Amino acid sequence: MNTLPIKKAWVGLVAGVAALSLVACTGNDSGDDTELRGGTSEADAGSNDEEGETVVIGFSAPAADHGWMGSITESAKRLAEQYDDIELRVAEGTNDVNLQISQVETFINEGVDAIVLLPFDGAAMTPVALQAMEAGIPVINVDREFDDPNAARVTVLGDNYGMGVSAGQYICSEVGDDKDAVVAEIAGIDSLPLTQDRSQGFEDALAECGLDVDNRVAADFTVEGGEEAATNLLQAAPEIDAIWNHDDDQGVGVLAAIENAGRDEFIMIGGAGSANAMREIQSGDSVLKATVIYPSTQAADGIKLARLLVQQKAMSDLVEVEVPRTVQLYAPVVTEDNVDEYIDSAFES
Question: Where is this region: Disordered (predicted)?
């Protein structure tokens, strides 16, 4: 491994994995009533949260072409606004890899203190992320991983495999006593590793209660794609007991197709955790009974971590004196029993 130049004294690599959500304790700007909370305990976080040296953070993410991605950027901005010592420079969201590479190159040339990057394509963005690290600028990789672990100081991930496991376990708890139960799956984009991971987790969890996926279609994370895929599924499967839809944005179209078909003999669990899905759950009148969280606050976590790194602080709830290399967030199931705990921080599809 090549030794990377050190911009500040804190750039030491530390092994460790923390399954913690860091969306964060109270910021040093108390004027915002919509502060993102959670993670580090407020009782112990005083030194972390006190205003310190100003941290200039460059942020780049794909275009906000659906609710979850829109919330990624908005949550990052909202978190930064809570801290007087964060200067956040937000590049325009883009699905053009070459443009995103250019954005990161601009941040490098400007000499920002850290870069928080949700790549449109992790493999394509790896070389420029390595350039930033070699320039002594720590990169916080969000959601879509680089090809080379040396391209990021910290990686913040959702748990795609865990989403599938949570969805499968929920269906097992609801219909697992019936070994003849018909289970269907409406996936996202099949070519993406995240979709493959979600499907594998789902299959593995169902196997634990003797079920499998009887009918499967793939959509594309859009409302239109969800409606088309669900229409095809309902036509192919005259009887269904449970459906898992990977994504609540495409779930808007899935629910429309279900209503158009007049079908209500099954239960459905969604994915990602949108506010409109949670309202459906609250209503008690929908086939949608649950959704699995895939946090849209991952980039906000990245902003928090970037600030801690530059200011040479650690995570108060850990004994370690450095921020971990990897933070993987949990994939809880939201039902009518706990929906009130999650809906205020949910994104709109």
Answer: 30-52
* Amino acid 254: pLDDT: 98
Q: In what order do the strands lie in the sheet with 242-245?
A: 215-218, 183-187, 242-245, 267-272, 288-293, 333-334
Give the model confidence (pLDDT) of 57-75 as tens digits.
Answer: 999 999 998 899 999 999 9
Class of domain 160-293: alpha beta
Query: Does residue 325 contact residue 285 with C-beta atoms inside 8 Å?
Result: no
Q: How far apart are CA 168 and CA 142, in angstroms?
A: 26
pTM summary value: 0.82
d(CA 75, CA 189): 25
CB 153 within 8 A of CB 13: yes
| CATH architecture classification, 17-158+296-330 | 3-Layer(aba) Sandwich (3.40)
pLDDT surpasses 80 at 37: no
Collect all residues with Cβ–Cβ distance below 8 Å to 43 and sequence separation of at least 6.
none
